[in-house]
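Sample entry (267 residues):
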Amino acid sequence: MSETASAAELLAAVEASPRAVAVHDRDAWVGLFAPGATVEDPVGARPHIGRAAIERFYDTFIGPNGIAFSIDHDVVCGMTVFRDLVIETTMSTGVTLRVPMHLRYDVERVDGELKIRTLHAHWELPTMIAQLLSAGLRGLAAAAKLTPQLLGNQGIGGALGFARGFVRVGPAGRRAATGLLGHAARGNGEAVRAALAPGAVLEWPAGTPADADEFVARAAGVEVGKTLVAGRYVTVSVETTAGPGIAEIVVARGGRQISAVRVFLAE
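Predicted structure, serialized as tokens:
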């Protein structure tokens, strides 16, 4: 069977996720994923791989909370849906956290049905924790409840794996990523090439390789919006001549050069 799907089909497959979350339908939500699927939430934390791990992820982070999705826009590129959104999480103590995100869903056909193969949630864990701790007693109570939930469902290894989400490329990586896009927008190919690590991958749109000159030509006038840092990734909401998109940028070791840029644009 064909591995392709229309944008409408892909969006419908992805939109089933917030519907299941809203009504706390654990089986429906877990059933959206392909066998052996991966959930990396946040990016940089240890991934949850396979049905049992994804069930534990749901029990820890989704089931106990009220979660609302506020979608800015979706970008469908190939078999990927990249969502630009804010998620509002209301925890059991009543504290509500507002977390800007980019959610990348890679989708595949399994026995004729569209299933999520990988979910990469780009959001800033330190920012969320700061919101939680600034919420006063209700925030502290929510943090106190989350810890035993995390340990009970994920174990010590899982808790440590979640804590890896605090390790990010930081301000230097953010500057390197947005700086490269700025140089490209202004047509400064020399500065773009200087910002790239040896062997860097450029794709515009994602899946279509480009050399530095082609990348600069396609990026002319691009405007940079919401920027998130998670793990070694910087994701950026961009406005291009072809419409809105999301740039996924990988920062090289050292935090000052870029090893990959993939710009997801609607087809």
